[in-house]
Amino acid sequence: MAGLTLNHFLVLGLILFLLGGYCVLSRRNAIGILLGIELILNAANINYIAFSFYGGHAMKYDGQVFAIFVIMLPAAQALIGLAIILAIHQNLRTMHVSATETLS
Question: What is the pTM of this model?
Fold first, then answer.
């Protein structure tokens, strides 16, 4: 990759992580929170792949293996998270996270 260094990928990962953190902390909608978590996990994937690419022969496939696991994790998270969100929506007719305080 001509012209791209590890620092470029780290800055991109930092930007995605900060956007995801802002999304998680500022959203009231449960879907928005899940999307923020996805951004955070994608930032971790970028860092894993970048470190495996620039890390040398000893780390050639380590980052890619971790990235595959991080890709599988959001699939399970989305399945369980969306099931919980649908159950809350069915009972409370809202998707705002603050409405779940009324559950007892």
Answer: 0.78
| Integer-rounded Cα radius of gyration of the chain | 17
97, 33 contact by CB (below 8 A): yes
Cβ atoms of residues 51 and 43 within 8 Å = no
Place of tokens 């998707």: 95
Res 60 pLDDT > 80: no
Q: Which amino acid is at 39?
A: L
CA–CA gap between residue 80 and residue 33 (Å, rounded): 14
3-state secondary structure of 10: helix
d(CA 12, CA 43): 8
Q: In the structure, what pLDDT confidence band is assigned to residue 48 with cuts at 50, 70 and 90?
A: confident
pLDDT at 22: 97
